[in-house]
UniProtKB/TrEMBL annotation:
Gene Ontology biological-process annotations: sporulation resulting in formation of a cellular spore
Organism name: Sulfobacillus thermosulfidooxidans
InterPro entries: Spore_YabP, Spore_YabP/YqfC, YabP_sf
Superkingdom as given in the UniProt entry: Bacteria
Descriptive protein name: Sporulation protein YabP
Amino acid sequence: MDEKRDKTRTHLLTLTNRTQLAIEGVQHVENFDDDVIMLSTDMGILTIKGHNLRIHQLDLDSGSFVAEGDIDSLVYSRKKPGKSDGTWARLWR
C-alpha cells in the first residue's frame, strides 16, 4: 500500500526567502543537525545544507516537512536509503 501511495503522491518543494523550506513527499529523515538535514523523499535523497537549521514540522503519514534556518543549498542524489557507503563498503570496491 505504501508503494502505491508513493507512486501517486506529488513531490513538491517550496523555498521562501531561503529561510523556510516546505516539502511534500518526504518518506523519512535520514539524519540532521544544525548545518545539514538529509531526507529520503519520493524523488531520492535530498541534502539540505545551511546554518541554524531546525525541523519545524514533520508528518510522515502525509509526507509533509517544514524546516527553517539559513538555507544554502539543496542537492538531490540517487543513493538508495539504507545502503551503507561506510568504510567496509569502500574497502570491498
